[in-house]
Amino acid sequence: MNIYDIAREAGVSISTVSRVLNNKENVNENTRRKVEEVLRRSNYTPSAIARGMVSKSMRTVAVLTVDIRVPHYARTAYTIEREFSRRGYEVTICNTGGELAETEKYLRTVIEKKADGIVLVGSVFNTLCRTPEIESLLKTLPVVLANGKLDLPNSYSVLVDDRYGISLAVDHLVSRGYRELYYLKDMDTVSARLKCEGFVEARKKHGLEGSGKYVLETSLSIDGGMKAVQELIRTKQKFDAIVCGEDITAAGAVKALLRAGIKVPEEAAVTGFNNSEYARICEPQLTTIDNKPELVAMLSVQLLTSLIEKTDAYSSCTIQPELVQGKTT
Amino acid sequence: MNIYDIAREAGVSISTVSRVLNNKENVNENTRRKVEEVLRRSNYTPSAIARGMVSKSMRTVAVLTVDIRVPHYARTAYTIEREFSRRGYEVTICNTGGELAETEKYLRTVIEKKADGIVLVGSVFNTLCRTPEIESLLKTLPVVLANGKLDLPNSYSVLVDDRYGISLAVDHLVSRGYRELYYLKDMDTVSARLKCEGFVEARKKHGLEGSGKYVLETSLSIDGGMKAVQELIRTKQKFDAIVCGEDITAAGAVKALLRAGIKVPEEAAVTGFNNSEYARICEPQLTTIDNKPELVAMLSVQLLTSLIEKTDAYSSCTIQPELVQGKTT
DNA sequence: CTGTTAGCGCTTTCAT
DNA sequence: ATGAAAGCGCTAACAG
């Protein structure tokens, strides 16, 4: 069933049906009613593909992310999807695993399908998008990087000040009297690096002694957090606060402390990062940093929409995280 | 830049370019090389829309779910996306919020865009898809319901035996000597109802006294779990085990018990459902039911693929959950 | 092996 | 206010 069938049935031309379909003004009321009547009883659906053929847009945007199962990405992607849906776009999800080959593959198909734009979610894309192939692909359509920066003609960014986020945690701990701070670093993305730098700087700012190795590298998991703290305990390091780059490692840290009989927050404090459900499940509930994924998503959508529809003035921007007080500090 | 440009540049017809593009056999090696050379240096991308115009498929499937932020749905959607990506399909995500109007809206656009198929993730769709409008929409394309059943010509399902899942928890608790079991029911989906029934039946099977109100309704959140247990404590009910329909409420239950000074699992046991990261963050780690979202996703994808490509024999199926022992029982 | 041509189902001028 | 016709970029049938 296509537009010709409707036209024949209603005894008009396809142009008229098209006009009715798209609510154009210049259609006689009687004709309109007649066509609408046929439309109603024939349960015809216009083909978005044929439309896209003409308009060169399928009203679809792609969200490339590392892994939608990570709550932080899920929250971001959720808000992006809902906002775009409101604006009449569909959202395609791509789990790249942070891998170059996958990213490139997804980009190619997304471009073949003439997506209207792309949101890159996660700071991995900062480093991932530096190859000539990827850059030349990205140049072909509007791109917004959620938490990252790209120096490309059509690319804009919504940044989160991760460095500042961690400094909030350090300031907070110091003001509460904690002095022996350690940092649990989990990965090697730009974001993780910035957080770590923020920790080192904030520590210095407060004139805390540089006892040497107060940054512990570990894996991004409950177990990673536990092992790092267990090692700290085993080697009898003096510490009274563990600053973590992620809530999940913080949850592991708390677990290790409690199991070792160390009271939280009396004997040792812990801070997380992301203000996730993980922070609230943790007992005691984690003090954490809210890096506002919903806000990042909203701004990304606004930015990308303005790029796609060439309306408004668009510009990149930066978001300041906030500390959320829990019971672990 | 389109297929005509390439043809002109290479001095051949568009058919030949099309043949090269689609790796057809009957092309002279020299011609092929010549065209490929032009293709390479012109960074031309074939339009998937124009292709879709002919083939009537954009190689896209839609995943309708309630909310991608819920870890269980995220895990399911993740696996679905990865598997379809491997098979050359893109995945559109739709967060319906479990609402009828949104579901219908999404279905309409998905059908307009000629999606090759749909996966419905979540048992809400069991009840949601009973309206004539939705049914007539679903009839137009292949549908797989992950954890649900629909009596429609083109709809198949991958079921999880939730009732059996909860019975595993009850059996386990009883075998460990717990006798005063309560159930925390969180919502009102088919799945939640089945779990609750499973609890009641298993309780009866073990000949536990029907002390009356041992099913507590609460909200699906940490707070919901906490409040229910706090109420139990406040009203001085005798209990030694809390069976929960979700890990998140179980985490709340554990929190409430610990805060009340009740030892877990010595004085009271708790079981969750989903085998999620929440279960592992909980301290002590939750005993929970693994309802295998990855397996559900894999089977759903296989089923839908076979429906779309009309290969293999396709059929609905049911999955048995397993108990995962933690430290709360 | 290669080229010509007819669609695919719409939107959009351009006439009338 | 309405219709005729061109064209979006491709695939596939047919002809050579």
| Number of E-type strands of chain A | 12
Poorly predicted residue ranges of chain A = none
Number of domains of chain A: 3
Structural class of chain A: alpha/beta
The biggest sheet of chain A, with number of strands, parallel, antiparallel or mixed sense and barrel status, is:
6 strands, parallel
Quaternary structure type? homodimer
Instruction: Using the coordinates shown, work out and report the CATH topology of the largest domain in chain A.
Output: Rossmann fold
Please, what is the average pLDDT of chain A? 95
Order of strands, widest sheet of chain A? 2-1-3-4-5-11
The helical percent of chain A reads 40-55%
- Which pair has the most extensive contact? A-B, 52 and 51 residues
CATH architecture of the largest domain in chain A: 3-Layer(aba) Sandwich
- Percent of residues of chain A in beta strands? 15-25%
Radius of gyration of chain A over all CA atoms, rounded? 26 Å
Question: Could you characterize what this model shows?
Answer:
- Two copies of one chain form a homodimer.
- By secondary structure, the first copy, chain A, is α/β, with parallel strands linked by helices.
- Chain A folds into three domains: 3-46, lambda repressor-like DNA-binding domains (434 Repressor (Amino-terminal Domain), Orthogonal Bundle); 58-160 and 293-320, Rossmann fold, CATH 3.40.50; 162-290, 3-Layer(aba) Sandwich (Rossmann fold), CATH 3.40.50.
- Chain A is 48% helix and 16% strand.
- Chain A has 14 helices and twelve strands.
- Chain A has helices at residues 3-10, 14-21, 29-42, 48-55, 71-86, 100-112, 124-128, 132-138, 162-175, 190-205, 222-234, 247-259, 277-281, 293-309, and strands at 60-65, 90-95, 117-121, 143-146, 155-160, 181-185, 215-217, 241-244, 269-271, 288-290, 317-319, 322-324.
- In chain A, the strands form three sheets. A six-stranded parallel β-sheet of chain A has the order 2-1-3-4-5-11, with helices on both faces. In chain A, strands 7-6-8-9 form a four-stranded parallel β-sheet, with helices on both faces. In chain A, strands 10-12 form a two-stranded antiparallel sheet.
- In chain A, helix 5 (71-86) runs parallel beside helix 14 (293-309).
- The longest helix of chain A has 17 residues, at 293-309.
- Chain A is elongated and about 90 Å long.
- At the A-B interface, helix 4, helix 5, strand 2, helix 6 and helix 12 of A face helix 4, helix 5, strand 2, helix 6 and helix 12 of B.
- Chain A binds a DNA duplex (16 and 16 nucleotides) through helix 2 and helix 4.
